[in-house]
Write a structure and sequence with these properties.
The protein is α+β, with helices and mostly antiparallel strands. It contains twelve helices and 19 strands. It folds into two domains: 243 residues, 3-Layer(bba) Sandwich (FAD/NAD(P)-binding domain), CATH 3.50.50; 150 residues, Helicase, Ruva Protein, domain 3 (Orthogonal Bundle), CATH 1.10.8.50. The strands form five sheets. Strands 12-15-14-13-16-17 form a six-stranded antiparallel beta barrel. A five-stranded parallel beta sheet has the order 6-2-1-10-19, covered by helices on one side. The chain is elongated.
């Protein structure tokens, strides 16, 4: 068994790997190119850190469309329940919210980072910041150390590559690990943005910028009209298209369509069918019968959305409400139930929450996270070709694979 372990990257996976390796009395050096650890972890869950999900392991796998089956071994070795227990043992209590999302009770990602850092240091790991690795060195098919960007060589018997993906490069996830792995003969599955805001074709979308919708449902259809995905929750309009939890999760379902030639249909009033919505509109029209159309929808829709709905209805904004026909009224109800946008693409990978693609899982032992090509090289986290939906699944991947790598390096 090797004794000198280098962990490259002090994110969720790297911190967990360092803590576990140090706990096994390994001589651990954790190298981080940033000036602080856990930079991406600190902004996860809008700074609250969606640690994991309370769903069972089978459910967890189903929520990981990017090679979920590869993770069976690591999830059974170190499960979501184990993650929660480990944090609890260190004094960090958690809570479960909608959709099984698990957060620290404090709602502060800093507390999660502190616990992981403390675990690593307590075990004896040395953390070196502003330490950028240039390449991993191999001798006779096994790792021998790393060459730093400043030219220094650091010897190692085992290396854990936990550099993250290519999303949010400001946090240090700039794809360095892919080039390091590629130099060693590993296959890199092409990178794509996952859990990413979407672009729309409609020019009027910018009028809705900043509008957040809650308790709405969405359905995405392909160009043949086949349903791809449906979901319920909240979303956000942007100057370029749509974002928010519903959209980010749905985006993963349309990756294979290259994020285009699909139709997003929003039901703004999912609690009402068309008949009930029509009755509701009738009541509002009776209430505002002496007003113009543009002043009759305040009780029904967010203020920002009213001009867009009027424009799409092709009814004059100045038309008196008492002159709107039954056909026009029913068309308004249909528009509200089927508010349609055409998706033309996705924002760049730098704005994605997660990177899809990465080091091929075919070249990694799922039980140990060790490379099948290079002895003593282990992978953990987003650098591997695995990715999940929103809801704590991607951090679970990082913690679980980091744990397994740390226990086997």
């Amino acid at each position: 068994m090797s004794n000198k372990v280098i962990v490259i990257g002090a994110g969720a996976a790297g911190l967990m790997a360092a803590a576990q390796a140090a706990g096994r009395k390994k001589e651990v050096l954790l190298l981080e190119k940033n000036d602080t650890v856990g930079k991406k972890l600190l902004i996860s869950g809008k700074g609250r850190c969606n640690i994991t999900n309370s769903i069972d392991i089978e459910g967890m796998i189903q929520n990981i469309p990017g090679n979920g089956n590869f993770l069976y071994s690591s999830f059974y070795t170190f499960s979501n329940e184990d993650i929660i227990e480990l944090l609890s043992n260190e004094g960090l209590e958690t809570k479960v919210e909608r959709g099984g999302r698990v957060f620290p009770v404090s709602d502060n990602a800093k507390d999660v980072v502190r616990v992981l850092q403390r675990l690593a240091v307590k075990g004896g790991a040395q953390i070196k910041l502003k330490a950028a690795v240039h390449e991993i060195l191999v001798d006779d098919g096994a790792v021998s150390g790393v060459k730093m960007k400043n030219g220094d060589f650091i010897e190692a018997d085992s290396i854990v590559l936990a550099t993250g993906g290519a999303s949010y490069p400001g946090t240090g996830s700039t794809g360095d690990g892919y080039s390091m792995a590629r130099k060693l003969g590993h296959t890199i599955i092409p990178l794509k943005p996952s859990l990413v805001p979407l672009l729309t074709c409609e020019n009027w979308i910018s009028k809705l910028q900043g509008l957040s919708l809650k308790n709405i449902s969405i359905t995405i259809f392909d160009k043949k009209g086949r349903k791809i995905v449906s979901d319920f929750g909240e979303m956000l309009f942007t100057h370029y298209g749509v974002s928010g939890p519903l959209i980010l999760s749905a985006s993963r379902h349309i990756m294979q369509y290259d994020y285009k030639d699909v139709r997003l249909v929003i039901d703004l009033k999912p609690a009402l069918d068309e008949e009930k919505l029509d009755a509701r509109i009738q009541r509002d029209f009776e209430k505002y019968s002496r007003k113009q159309f543009k002043n009759s929808l305040d009780d029904l829709l967010p203020q920002k959305m009213i001009p867009v709905i009027i424009e799409l209805s092709q009814i004059s904004a100045d038309k008196p409400v008492n002159q709107i026909t039954k056909t026009e009224r029913r068309a308004i109800a249909k528009l509200i139930k089927s508010f349609t946008l055409n998706i033309s693409g996705a924002r760049p990978i730098s704005e994605a929450i997660v990177t899809a693609g990465g080091i091929s899982t075919d070249e990694i032992n799922p039980s140990t996270m060790e490379s099948k090509l290079v002895k003593g090289l282990f992978m953990a986290g987003e650098v591997i070709d695995v990715d999940g939906y929103t809801g704590g699944f991607n951090l679970t991947i990082a913690f679980s694979t980091g744990y397994v790598a740390g226990m086997n390096c």
